């Protein structure tokens, strides 16, 4: 008797799980198209979407480029999906590329719809293309037919990323749109002549709109400012080039008569890679420090002019400025911000050759 | 008609039955028994030498002959057909003489119907005593007593059943055993004395266990070392005649991955080996489900490179991942079930056909993906990592639960499957001792 009731319960449970689980919507991985790269441009108030879909076949994987225009991005993706033999699943979307023109018009709508979407990962990386998306994708297609993850690997920390490339994820842009004190830089790329992709620098984004750009060298400094380990970057000067081994930052902030003031110290540990002539250690240090200070000041003026806080220095003032005034950080405080950058370099080693010597020792 | 003649008539056509007339101690006697159970020449010689040792002259003193005869065995007090049959089927010899009519139950020299002590057949021992339990109850006692030389080892023997009585033995260490456990088991065995207990299911029923539980109630082992360890832990060991295993009661979760024999290795390797066994259990439970979950429900968890290569290996496979996995799992189960019964000479053929030809062909015919073959091979190998064959059975069953849940709910389903399994294991108890209980030996001979 007891077991019959148990059996009934089990049967009920099985029926419920089968009918309520929605398992009939599960699609096997070989019936899904998993685009890795999505490109978005805007033509006459219509979106043009590029999807780079890796296709598997017996002779390895090839990638397929699908393009379509429509009123909304989801509509375009849906249409592409209905025209393909598999369902387009944006789960594996790794890189989203906006055309520069569209980025200058403002990305707020797209970014918030990506954040809202359950399919697109908030970790997807965002880049801005400095040329026409059509030509960019056709070149990408031509040069990387065997490897579909070129663009993804370009930004991947354990693959092809280098410190002069900014890495920005969708959620960071969303955060910058809604934050008083933090803007963001999005990497700016275009198709290269000999390599597949060329790093142009980074776009300055202010409240979701691209307002200016910084160079690749300045991007390196920005990454160093975020302690995004500046490993492996070569810094060319008149006399030598060095490898930044590690960097750390120290900040001191204050409000002086309502004006924000910041004293920052970058500690760089470098190792000498190349020398031209016979520069001494002190010379290399001095040159590096002046070069970096100049470069930083130039970049910072640029930022202040665009009123876009891509370094996120406003974060350090959040405890010092009342919230109602903080809303005007970009317009009122940032342009008045005085920043003293102190670059301290330690030459950790000179590589395998001990030829660079202090003048005194010589 | 006399009783002896009646029995004679009854076994007229029985080739095994023997009834002979002899002179023993100067008196005519009849001996009765089964040839297959009694070594007759030796028994007879033994009986004669015992009579001779009395060195009496029976022709002068007929009473002394009676005394000597009665000493040969014990008298069956109320001889009837059933009583005599019971004595004979148990393998004893009956001596019958007249004036007065007496039936003697004599313990003969038996025919050896048991293999000698051998290496364990179901589990191999790498470092440790290699003698395994045997079909014979007394041999098993002896092995265990050799292994556990202790005065507090108690043995209770029961003769259960009316139809075909069978000996059951219950062993425990007086000073270690859980009193409650002992009480429950002895009480139930006493109460079910009339039942014929000749297999584990019947014993389980007699001991009052629920029959449909997936968790084994006994930990059966062939190794005296394991049985002795269980006794030291305060558990009870049951032996059944003609059953070459010790049944350790209650079975605990530790039996799945802990063996006493592990302690013959350095402690580091003991823990590593046990860790591997646990990993084997987890792999067995999770892997098939994980494959289905990642391939059909949650492909976003995979790295893109892996996702693409899996998609490539699955291109052209007609079935959904769940059906594909289930199909191959059933084939694998069939191989296991089939190879258990097969003679040793045919077994390898089956392995070749099943493992190589079937596996290769099924991939080449694009019925399943090559990745699945790898996963199921790993699962099957991992299944054998646990201690004891009876412990691998529930794990084999439980993996289907995770598989089904994974096909419905993906990675979350695997997690909920594991939770359900844990809850089920936690709910299992034997006489109030939870299945998930870890016993520490009460003597301090163990550390770690």
> Main sheet of chain B, how many strands, which sense, barrel?
5 strands, antiparallel
- Strand order of the biggest β-sheet of chain A: 4-3-2-6-7-8-9-10
The major pleated sheet of chain A works out as: 8 strands, mixed
Overall mean pLDDT of chain A stands at 84
Number of domains of chain A: 2
The end-to-end span of chain A amounts to: 100 Å
Helical stretch count of chain A?
Answer: 11
From the spread of the alpha carbons, the general shape of chain B counts as elongated
β-sheet strand percentage of chain A: 25-35%
User: Quick check: average pLDDT of chain B?
Assistant: 87
Q: What's the order of the H and E elements of chain A?
A: HEEEEHEEHHEHHHEEEHEEEHHHE
H-E order of chain B:
HEEHHEHEEHEEHHEHEEHHHHHHHEE
Terminus-to-terminus distance of chain B: 73 Å
Which segments of chain A are poorly predicted (pLDDT under 50) over 5 or more consecutive residues? none
Q: Using the CA coordinates, give the radius of gyration of chain A.
A: 26 Å
Quaternary structure type: heterodimer
Describe this structure in words.
Chain B: It comes from Paenibacillus mellifer. Chain B: This is Spore germination protein. Chain B: Pfam families: GerA (PF03323). The complex is a heterodimer of chains A (362) and B (448). Chain A is of the alpha/beta class. Chain A has helices at 2-20, 73-83, 100-105, 108-116, 133-143, 150-155, 170-178, 216-225, 281-306, 323-326, 329-333; strands spanning 32-33, 37-43, 46-57, 60-70, 87-88, 95-99, 125-129, 184-191, 197-206, 209-215, 234-236, 240-256, 259-275, 338-349. In chain A, strands 4-3-2-6-7-8-9-10 form an eight-stranded mixed sheet. Chain A has a four-stranded mixed sheet with strand order 11-12-13-14, with helices on one face. A two-stranded parallel ribbon of chain A has the order 1-5. In chain A, helix 4 packs across helix 7. The longest helix of chain A has 26 residues, at 281-306. Chain A is globular and about 85 Å long. Chain B is α+β, with helices and mostly antiparallel strands and 448 residues long. Helix content of chain B is 48%, strand content 14%. Chain B is built from 15 helices and twelve strands. In chain B, helix 11 (321-341) runs antiparallel to helix 12. The longest helix of chain B is centred in the middle third of the chain and has 31 residues, at 267-297. The model of chain B has no long low-confidence stretch (mean pLDDT 87). The interface between A and B is medium-sized, with 25 and 24 residues.
């Amino acid at each position: 008797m007891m077991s019959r009731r148990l059996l009934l319960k089990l049967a009920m449970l099985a029926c419920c799980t089968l009918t309520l689980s929605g398992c009939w919507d599960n699609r096997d991985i070989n019936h899904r198209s998993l685009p890795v790269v999505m490109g978005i441009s805007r033509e006459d108030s219509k979106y043009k979407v590029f999807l780079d879909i890796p296709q598997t076949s017996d002779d390895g994987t090839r990638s397929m480029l699908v393009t379509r225009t429509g009123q909304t991005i989801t509509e375009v993706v849906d249409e592409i999906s209905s025209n393909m033999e598999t369902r387009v699943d944006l789960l594996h979307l790794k890189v989203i590329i906006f055309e520069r023109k569209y980025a200058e018009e403002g990305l707020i709508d797209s970014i918030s719809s990506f954040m809202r979407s359950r399919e697109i990962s908030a970790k997807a990386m965002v880049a801005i293309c400095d040329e026409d998306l059509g030509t960019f994708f056709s070149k990408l297609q031509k040069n990387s037919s065997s490897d579909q993850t070129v663009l993804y690997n370009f930004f991947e920390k354990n693959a092809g990323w280098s410190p002069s490339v900014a890495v920005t994820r969708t959620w960071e842009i969303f955060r910058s749109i809604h934050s008083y004190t933090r803007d963001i830089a999005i990497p700016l790329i275009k198709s290269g002549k000999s390599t597949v992709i060329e790093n142009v620098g980074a776009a300055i984004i202010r409240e979701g709109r691209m307002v200016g750009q910084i160079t690749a060298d300045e991007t390196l400094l920005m990454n160093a400012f975020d302690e995004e380990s500046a490993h492996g970057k070569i810094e060319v000067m008149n006399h030598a080039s060095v490898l930044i081994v590690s960097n750390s930052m120290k900040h001191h902030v204050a409000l002086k008569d309502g004006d924000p003031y910041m004293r920052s110290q970058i500690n760089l540990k470098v190792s000498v890679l190349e020398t031209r002539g016979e520069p001494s250690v002190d010379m290399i240090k001095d040159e590096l420090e002046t070069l970096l200070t100049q470069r930083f000041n130039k970049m910072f003026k640029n930022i202040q002019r665009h009123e876009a806080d891509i370094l996120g220095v406003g974060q350090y003032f959040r405890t010092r400025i009342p919230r109602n005034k903080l809303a005007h950080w970009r317009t009122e405080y940032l342009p008045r911000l005085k920043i003293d950058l102190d670059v301290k370099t330690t030459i950790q080693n000179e590589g395998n050759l001990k030829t660079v010597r202090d003048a005194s020792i010589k | 008609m006399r009783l002896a003649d009646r029995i004679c008539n009854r076994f007229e056509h029985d080739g095994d039955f023997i009834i002979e007339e002899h002179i023993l101690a100067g008196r005519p006697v009849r001996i009765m028994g089964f040839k297959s159970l009694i070594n007759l020449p030796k028994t007879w010689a033994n009986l004669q030498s015992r009579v001779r040792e009395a060195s009496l002259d029976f022709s002068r003193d007929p009473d002394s002959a009676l005394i000597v005869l009665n000493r040969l065995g014990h008298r069956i007090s109320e001889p009837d057909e059933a009583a005599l049959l019971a004595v004979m089927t148990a393998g004893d010899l009956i001596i019958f003489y007249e004036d007065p009519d007496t039936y003697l139950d004599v313990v003969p020299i038996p025919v050896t119907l048991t293999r000698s002590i051998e290496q364990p057949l179901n589990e191999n021992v790498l470092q440790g005593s290699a003698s395994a339990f045997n079909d014979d109850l007394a041999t098993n006692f002896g092995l265990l007593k050799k292994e556990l030389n202790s005065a507090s080892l108690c043995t209770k023997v029961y003769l259960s059943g009316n139809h075909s009585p069978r000996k059951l033995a219950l062993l425990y260490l007086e000073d270690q055993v859980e009193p409650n456990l002992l009480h429950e088991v002895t009480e139930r065995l006493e109460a079910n004395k009339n039942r014929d207990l000749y297999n584990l299911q019947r014993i389980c029923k007699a001991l009052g266990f629920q029959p449909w539980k997936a968790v084994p109630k006994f930990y059966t082992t062939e190794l005296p070392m394991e049985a002795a360890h269980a006794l030291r832990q305060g558990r009870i060991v049951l032996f059944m005649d003609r059953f070459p295993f010790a049944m350790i009661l209650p079975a605990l979760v530790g039996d799945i991955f802990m063996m006493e024999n592990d302690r013959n290795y350095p402690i580091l390797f003991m823990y590593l080996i046990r860790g591997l066994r646990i990993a084997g259990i987890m792999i067995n439970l999770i892997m098939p489900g994980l494959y289905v979950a990642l391939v059909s429900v949650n492909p976003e968890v995979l790295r893109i490179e892996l996702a693409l290569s899996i998609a490539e290996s699955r291109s052209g496979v007609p079935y959904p991942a769940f059906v594909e996995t289930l199909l191959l799992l059933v084939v694998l189960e069939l191989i296991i079930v089939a190879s258990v019964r097969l003679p040793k000479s045919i077994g390898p053929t089956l392995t070749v056909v099943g493992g190589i030809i079937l596996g290769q062909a099924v991939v080449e015919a694009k019925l399943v993906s090559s990745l699945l073959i790898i996963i199921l091979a790993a699962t099957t190998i991992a299944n054998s990592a646990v201690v004891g064959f009876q412990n691998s059975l529930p794990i084999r069953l439980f993996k289907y639960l995770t598989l089904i849940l994974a096909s419905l709910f993906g990675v979350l389903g695997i997690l909920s499957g594991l939770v359900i399994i844990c809850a089920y294991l936690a709910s299992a108890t034997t006489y109030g001792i939870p299945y998930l209980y870890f016993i520490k030996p009460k003597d301090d001979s163990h550390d770690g």
